Amino acid sequence: MKVRQIGAVAAASVLALALAACGDSAKDGGSGGGGGGGFKIGIKFDQPGLGLKKGSDYTGLDVDVAKYVAKELGHSEKDITWVQAPSAQRETLISTGQVNMVVATYSITDARKEKVSFAGPYFIAGQDLLVRADDSSITGPDSLTGKKLCSVTGSTSAQKVKAKYPGVQLQEFGTYSECVAALVSKGVDALTTDNTILAGYAAQDQYKGKLKVVGKTFSEERYGIGIKKGDTATCEKINAALKKMIDSGDWQKAVDDNLGPAGFKVDTALNPPKQDACS
Ligand code: GLU
Fold it and tell me: Which atom of ligand 1 is nearest to the CA of 155?
């Protein structure tokens, strides 16, 4: 009898645990993206002017675009959870539902469209080179032969160098800030990625006067907002939000506020861009 009673108590607590677990998973399932609730947005954490985390503060053009779009989709600023989205992890973060969208200097490409869908573009940048201020030997991608160049794994920047400039010694890191450190300490001779990103580093207080952007762009980087592949409805809503941001003047303000301090010259022949049709 005593043994049976203990058994019943044990069975009851197992049932209670099972119910609790069931309740939790139901809640996670209903949060719409990665569990834990909130609207999760992937951004860069180390790119001044674009996506920068300083303590609990997030700033940059990508952050402002993301906040505007989120609001238009019905998510207030306090509902947003910012998630670090390094270049090589963006497609995976989206396809596994760890983020709802990625706004992280994320170029729209056909290869990426195999795994994710894009709204946008909301900005068009170009690939360029960052070198030490006293280096006059590197004037463009054609003068990189035999030089040590740094870029980031999973970026279009690294891809382009490998495909078009095979004579270059390419070192790939996980983030651009690691490349900047290597450039300053002379571990590499140049860093290549979008001119927007490079301008942000060159203007940082600790690097002022030490680095310069070469200023000869050799690609068109169309920044899109990455979402789950095939989510055309969300793509249409984001494009409507981007158009509203541009038409209202809020886009121009965000560009001036974020890229202005670095003295970045926006290519007005390409910007603001018209959004692609969603497919
Ligand atoms: N815009 C390029 C890309 O999406 C380079 C910048 C980055 O890696 O975020 O690959």
Answer: 10
> How do residues 51-106 score in pLDDT, each as one tens digit?
999 999 999 999 999 999 999 999 999 999 999 999 999 999 999 999 999 999 99
pTM of the model: 0.87
Tokens 């989205």 correspond to 85
Please tell me the distance between residue 37's alpha carbon and the centre of ligand 1 in angstroms. 28
Q: How far apart are CA 124 and CA 133, in angstroms?
A: 26
Q: How far is the CA of 194 from the centre of ligand 1 (A)?
A: 7
1.20.58.220, 3.40.190.10, 3.30.460.40, 3.40.50.1000: which CATH number matches 126-213? Answer: 3.40.190.10
Q: What residue ranges line ligand 1, CB within 6 angstroms?
A: 87, 104-107, 152, 155-157, 193-194, 221
Q: Start-end ranges of CATH 3.40.190.10 in the chain?
A: 12-119+222-262, 126-213
User: What sign does the CA torsion over 38, 77, 121, 89 have?
Assistant: negative
- Quickly list DSSP for 26-82: HHHHHTSSSSSSSEEEEE-SEETTTEEEETTEEESHHHHHHHHHHHHTT--GGGEEE
Ligand 1 atom with minimal separation from the 159 CA = 10
From 94, 103, 155, 179, give the residue whose CB has the most ligand 1 atoms within 8 Å, as the site to mutate.
155
- Domain 12-119+222-262 fold is D-Maltodextrin-Binding Protein; domain 2 (3.40.190)
